[in-house]
Amino acid sequence: MKKILITLLLLTILFIASNYESTEVIIPKDSIRFRVVASTNKEEDQKNKKIIANNLKQDITTILKNSNSLEDSRNTLKSNLLEFKSNIDKTMIDNNIKENYTINYGSNYFPEKEYKGVKYEEGEYESLVVTLGDGAGENFWCVLFPPLCLLEGEENEKDNIEYSSFIKEVIDKYF
Known about the structure:
four-stranded mixed beta sheet, three-stranded mixed beta sheet
């Protein structure tokens, strides 16, 4: 009898979990995005995009660490454009990347995207955009304010996480 009750409980939990619908969240209009667009979808161009995006993201994380408002983030980004350009130049030299690029802070077009379960509508958004070459390739993008992509850089203890499943523990215990 005990096994039947546990089985029914597990089936009920699985049924509820499979029919659960998460609500869609849209970021606020008052946000700042970050985008690095590759020249093409060739493997080397995509690799270069990732190198530049990662290095810039590190700089931006440091620069915006103490920023706690949209206006403060906006002013900080605008006042550091030359530093970002310098970072890109150095990154390209260090990684032997021979590519022209543009860097722009302002209103830029973004296609619809989904990031960590959050839907972002297409449109013109305040953003920092780096376009490599012709900008015809896939892109890296995230949100600087609120700091959705900067939080990823703070997650350093991924190796120390232990995952478990309540359902598996119950099954192992009773069956």
